[in-house]
C-alpha cells in the first residue's frame, strides 16, 4: 500500500532570522522589513549569539517568502545556548506572517498545545507590544495563561507585571512542557529566538494536505 505521507528529505534547515533579547531593537519591525534597526543579509543567517547582540539579524529570503517553496518553519527558543522550547509549522501556501498560526502548527515541545487547543492569540502580530504571541486566555493578569510571547519595544504597553520585567525586547516562554501563568512567575526569560525554514525538495503534492505532513529533523 502506498504511503500517503509526503516523505521530505532532511536537508539542512536555513536560518532566516535571529533575535536577541535586550538589544533595544524591535523584533516585529525587524522581521517585517529591512531597516536601520536590523542587519539584512542574503542567504542564510549565521546562528551565532554574538551576531544579534546589537541588532536583530534577518535574511532577505523573508522578503521573497512565496518564491522559495518553503514547506516547514521552525522556531527555536534558546537559554544559555540550549533550546528550551521549539515550534514546527507548515509553510506551504503561507506568507511571512500567516505561517505562525494554530492551523499551521505541526508540533511543539509543549504537550498541551495542538491544532485543537483553545487560544485567544496565536499570531506574529499578537496584541499591543506582545508579538509572536501564543496565549490561551485572559482572566486578569494573574490568570492569563500562555506559552510564548515577545515583549517588543513597539506597541502600546500592557498593564501586567510581566510586561515590565527588563529592557525590551525580551522573550517569555513557559517552563517545562505545558502553558504557564506568567504573572505568577511561571516563565523563563530566553536569550535568543531563531527562525529557520525548510524547502521542499521532493516530488510531493503541492500543497501538501493538512494531516499528511511530517516534521523533518
From TrEMBL:
PROSITE patterns in alphabetical order: PROKAR_LIPOPROTEIN
Protein name according to UniProt: Uncharacterized protein
Organism encoding this protein: Mytilus galloprovincialis
Taxonomic path: Eukaryota, Metazoa, Spiralia, Lophotrochozoa, Mollusca
